[in-house]
Amino acid sequence: MDKVLGLDAGRLASGRTVVKEYGNMLGPTVIFVLDELQRQMEEEEGKEAKWEVMMGFGPGFTIETMVLHAAGNLKKN
């Protein structure tokens, strides 16, 4: 999908990591991906928050979409 959308390598890494570790959990997958994104932000020094688009596809033709922007520093104090 990243090639079709013209995304840089690794932009979908968080989603792939979650599905690999936990499987497709439908709705809860989105929360797990957000947690993985935050974990990656904490590990990578100098990485700034960006706009993200998250999509969840369910049975039949169910789609949920969110556009998110992290305001400020995501690193825990």
Describe the structure.
The chain is of the alpha+beta class. The protein has one domain: Peroxisomal Thiolase, Chain A, domain 1 (3-Layer(aba) Sandwich). The protein contains three helices and two strands. The chain has helices spanning 2-5, 13-22, 28-43; strands spanning 51-58, 62-69. Strand 1 (51-58) and strand 2 form a beta hairpin. Helix 2 (13-22) packs across helix 3. The radius of gyration is 13 Å and the shape is globular. The N and C termini lie far apart (35 Å). One of its GO terms (molecular function) is acyltransferase activity, transferring groups other than amino-acyl groups.
Entry keywords:
2 strands; Peroxisomal Thiolase, Chain A, domain 1; single chain; 39% helix; globular; two-stranded antiparallel ribbon; 77 residues; 3 helices
List the uncertain runs.
none
CATH topology: Peroxisomal Thiolase, Chain A, domain 1
As for the number of domains, it is 1
Largest sheet: 2 strands, antiparallel
Q: What would CATH call the architecture? A: 3-Layer(aba) Sandwich
Which strands sit side by side, in order, in the main sheet? 1-2
Tell me the span between the first and last alpha carbons: 35 Å
Q: CATH H-level name... which superfamily?
A: Thiolase/Chalcone synthase
Helix content: 25-40%
> Would you tell me the structural class of the helices and strands?
alpha+beta
Percentage of β-strand residues: 15-25%
N-to-C order of helices and strands: HHHEE
Radius of gyration: 13 Å
Count, helices: 3
InterPro entries: Chalcone/stilbene_synt_C, Polyketide_synthase_type-III, Thiolase-like
GO molecular function, one term: acyltransferase activity, transferring groups other than amino-acyl groups
Organism: Arundo donax (Giant reed)
Protein name: Chalcone/stilbene synthase C-terminal domain-containing protein
